[in-house]
Please model this.
Amino acid sequence: MPRTRLYPLEDLEDIPGTKVFTALRSRQGYYLHKFCMSLMKEANREEFKADEKAYLDKFRMTEEQKQAVLDRDLTKLIDLGGNMYFLVKLASTDGMSAQKAVSATSGMSADEYAKMMLEGGRNPAGIRSIRDKN
Amino acid sequence: MARITAGIATSHVPAIGAAIDLGKQKDLYWAPVFQGYEFVKEWIKKNTPDVVILVYNDHASALMMDIIPTFAIGFAEEFLSADEGWGRRPVPVVKNHIELAAHISEQLVIDEFDITLINEMDVDHGLTVPLSLVFGQPEEWPCKVIPVCVNVSQFPTPSGERCWKLGEAIRNAVKTFPEDLDVQVWGTGGMSHQLHGSRAGLINEEFDRKFIDLLAHEPEELKYITRLEYLREAGTEGIELIMWLVMRAALGYGVEEKKRFYRVPASNTAVGHVVYEAKS
Ligand SMILES: [Fe+2]
Model:
C-alpha cells in the first residue's frame, strides 16, 4: 500500500498570494532559470547588460518570459514559473538588494516594506489559508 | 572513534554575509544581529571541531536546475564560494574531509538514505554565511567541512520526519568512523520568511519561538510539522527549518543548550540561532 498524503496537494494552492514552487512550476520556469543561472558569471552579466534582448534570445524562454525580464516584472516572472532563488540573480545583476527584489513582488513600495520588516514583519493572522480565511 | 560533540543552528541570510564582507557589523541595523553571535564566536575557540557536517540548502547556485537531489553530500576536496550574481564572497576555500564523507555516504545508503554524491560544486550563502558568523574572517577555516544539501525549495521536499531520520543516520555513521575525530553538525536556514507575493515579509514570531523552545528537550512534536504547515505558518522559505531537525537528531537524546538567540529582522527574515552540546 502506498502511504497516503497528510494533506491534499491542492492545499498548496490555498495560501493567499503564494505560488509554491512545485515540480510543474519548476518545469515551466526551466529555461527562464537557465538564463538566471547564466548570470552567475561576470562575462555573461556584461553580455546581458550590453544587449539584453540579444542575450535573452539565446535561451529557449517564451516571449512572455523574455518581455517580463526586459520589464523587470518579477511578479509576472513568478506567475510564469519563476522562483525567487533564481530571479534574485537577475536582481543582483542590476545591483538590487534581495529585500528590494522581494518587496517589488509584494505590492508595497520598498520603503513601506522595509519599515514593515523593521516593525517585526508581516503578521500571519488572516493570511494562512484562502479557504479558512485565518 | 569519531564522535558528535555539539551542534549549531543558525539562519543564513545572504545580507548577513554582505554585512560581514562590507564591515557593517557595527551599523545600527546590524549590531543587534551580530550581538547574538558573540557567544558562539567565543565558545567555538575552545570547541573547534575537526570536522563540521554542515546541513544547508543550495539556493539555485549549484543545484535546483538540471538535477534536484533530495539529499546530497559534497564529495570534492575543495569548494569555492559561489558567485550568486554579485561576485564570489571573499571567504576562504572550504576543505572537505573526504574519508569521512565517503564513510558517511556508505553508511547512509546502508541506512536506506540513497544520497547523491556531488563531485563538483560551488557553495553558496547557505554554507558560507554560517561559517562567517561562527568563525569570523580568518585566513583559512579552522576545520574541515562536509556539505550536506537538503532540497527545501522545490516540491516535493522531504518531510521533517525524514530529516530527523537523516540526522540519526548521520549520527550512526559518524560513530562508526574509526579515526579519532571531534565532529559537529550544523543545521542552517530559517526562521520564518517568505520571499515573494502579497505575503512577502511574513514573520511568525510565535511559531519561531515555539520551535526554539521545543528543539532542545522536546523535539518529538516538531518532527510532525507538515510541509503545508511550514508554508502556512512560517512562509514559503520557513521550511528551511527542517534542516535544524537534522542537526538536532544527530546530537542524540540529551543536549545542553548553551545559547539561544532570536531577532527580527535581517533583510526579509527572522534570525534564529542555537548552540547545543551533546550529553552522551
Ligand atoms: Fe536559505
Observations:
- The pocket of fe (ii) ion is lined by residues B 12, 57, 59, 126, 189, 240 (CB under 6 Å).
- The mean pLDDT of chain A is 96.
